[in-house]
Amino acid sequence: MSGHSDPNSVPHAKSQLEASAHRTPGWTTDTQLVREFDRPFHVGDAVRSAVTDAIEQWSELSETPPLYNFVDTDRLNGLFKTKATDDSGWLPSAEFQFQTCRVTVLYGPVIRVIIEHDP
């Protein structure tokens, strides 16, 4: 990963997560990484943390463009509002591409970040 100092770079996530809300256990398979975060938790921090874990899981992701070239994670924080979830059963979500991965963010009782890797 480059030494670029953009605030959306993945290494930025580690320092912010220490002061953020609780991250709950997730799971990983050969092609999928799922991380969950208790609300309140900044959506951008959740995405950066999950992508950091994905890069550790699939090292080839560290050799290509960084996360900030694909999505402005700081703007994800304002995408979902607290009232976005209700009893309708509809779960607000967002999807974007990160390198060879599809990233899905689900905003419900917990924030779930799903990264599907296509090797």
From TrEMBL:
InterPro entries: HalOD1. It comes from Halorubrum ejinorense. Pfam families: HalOD1. Residues 59-113 form the Halobacterial output domain. Residues 1-25 are annotated as: Disordered. This is HalOD1 output domain-containing protein.
